[in-house]
Specification:
By secondary structure, this protein is an alpha+beta fold. It contains three helices and twelve strands. The chain has one domain.
């Protein structure tokens, strides 16, 4: 598990414990699974929270597909049509080191400042708690907490992704990356609520 993943898991547990301390019925945290990070149950309703620790800026990712022999993402041909050898079956370290400079990380701007909210809402999270920034909703403030919508300058980051235990990347991934400085501080923060009520 990477350092970032460990930090994320630790912060999920912090948020889990805060919500439990507020008297909420809280399910087990998600860890690195695809489920929302922290989910509370109120009667028949589940309300989920995404937890972003420390300096985390990544908000979901998807695989960049091969289309007609090149990598294409959001109608844009990546790396001028070049395809890394590891996607064609050559997974040797020497080959990767020789061609690595042709596959630098690429950024694609996104106009929509609420794209991260939409991504997590589709995943089933109603709220995003960002360490040092506060609590935000992802489209609808379902608990009526009076928190703002998560909106930040965001880009797609396209890169060759190395998976644990491998010396060569195994996939090309596009990740939503938001600029923390452009995210306006929320008026509410779960970290302050430890002694109050949600």
């Amino acid at each position: 598990m990477s350092f970032a993943a460990k930090q994320g898991k630790k912060y999920e547990n912090v948020i889990h414990d805060i919500l439990e301390g507020l008297g909420e019925k809280v399910l087990e945290t998600a860890g690195s699974s695809r489920r929302p990070d922290v989910t509370i149950i109120r009667g028949d309703t589940k309300v989920s929270f995404e937890a972003k620790s420390g300096n985390a800026t990544e908000a979901g990712q998807e695989k960049v597909p091969l289309v007609n022999g090149h990598l294409e993402f959001k109608n844009e041909i990546i790396w001028e049509g070049r395809v890394p050898a590891f996607l064609k079956g050559d997974k040797t370290k020497d080959t990767w080191l020789a061609e690595k400079m042709n596959f630098e990380t690429k950024y694609i701007p996104i106009e929509d400042r609420s794209i991260v909210s939409k991504y997590y809402k589709d995943k089933g999270s109603a709220y995003i708690q960002v360490q040092h920034k506060g609590l935000y909703h992802t489209g609808e403030d379902v608990l009526g907490l009076g928190v703002p919508l998560f909106e930040a300058d965001t880009k797609w980051r396209v890169r060759c992704k190395q998976h644990t235990g491998s010396s060569v990347p195994g996939s090309v991934m596009a990740s939503l990356v938001f600029d923390r400085d452009s995210l306006k501080k929320s008026n509410k923060n779960l970290e302050w609520w430890q002694n109050n009520h949600l």
